[in-house]
Design a protein that fits this description.
mainly alpha, 2 domains, two-stranded antiparallel sheet, 2 strands, 4% strand, flat
């Protein structure tokens, strides 16, 4: 059974919320493994994982630096350089937060790289959402996949003209400065082209808009979305209530 785009959004959002609220190391690792496995099974891993690395590696390093060296509650000191102390508690806290954020980022990226923009726009419009807002929302959710795909085409074109990109993250980072300008210019040009296309298709008209694209939904998936929403709200409520219960 094919997932409705709103079901995919609900699953990704509720999973990110519940994983963050639970603050459980095993749950975070399970979600990370599931997101990576689903991306491999869906054929999105080659595009999604490099984007995830660009987001998560600096974030993980900053968390390790901040909490690993300057964690006030740390008692087990592993190393010390003046005011900076590497503590076991600080490293554990940093790794736990990194796992939580990685799980949330990966499930949201998985949704972004696998969801169908036309289906999402049609589904939102079918539920009375303004067509322009629906398109902006869908485009925002798929912005990273669009940039990743466009950057790949630019890199291939530059390599065909003789640009040598050294392997590894430093080599790609050095080559990115040659790719940034054509990337931005192409995105700006595409934005103008899309605006004209949307205007021609009646997105700016005041009257009702019809769509030839019909996205099939089912009562089962509607119930699943409701359960996911309630589960996310319950996880937030439990997280907020927990400190009060412990006092």
């Amino acid at each position: 059974m094919r997932l409705h785009p709103l079901t995919s959004l609900a699953a990704a959002g509720s999973t990110a919320v519940m994983t963050t609220a639970a603050a459980s190391w095993p749950l975070s690792l399970t979600v990370i493994a599931a997101a990576v496995g689903l991306s491999v099974a869906g054929g999105a891993a080659r595009r999604m994982l490099p984007v995830a690395a660009v987001i998560l590696v600096p974030l993980a390093l900053s968390l390790l630096f901040l909490h690993g060296l300057f964690f006030p509650e740390g008692t087990t000191v592993l190393a010390q350089w003046g005011p900076a102390r590497v503590t076991a508690q600080g490293l554990q806290f940093a790794l736990e937060r990194t796992a939580q954020l990685s799980a949330a980022v990966l499930v949201l990226l998985l949704c972004s790289f696998t969801i169908s923009v036309p289906d999402l726009v049609a589904a939102l419009s079918d539920r009375g959402v303004n067509a322009r807002f629906a398109f902006v929302l869908a485009s925002t959710l798929t912005l990273l996949p669009a940039i990743s795909s466009r950057l790949g085409r630019i890199r291939q074109a530059q390599e065909a003209r003789g640009l040598v990109i050294r392997p590894g993250i430093p080599g790609r980072a050095a080559a990115f400065r040659w790719q940034a300008v054509p990337l931005v210019l192409s995105l700006v040009e595409e934005a103008g082209t899309r605006a004209a296309a949307l205007q021609a298709r009646g997105f700016g008209s005041a009257g009702p808009i019809t769509s030839y694209r019909q996205v099939q939904d089912s009562p089962v998936q509607r119930w699943v979305r409701l359960v996911l929403l309630l589960a996310a709200l319950a996880a937030i409520a439990a997280r907020l209530w927990q400190p009060t219960a412990g006092t």
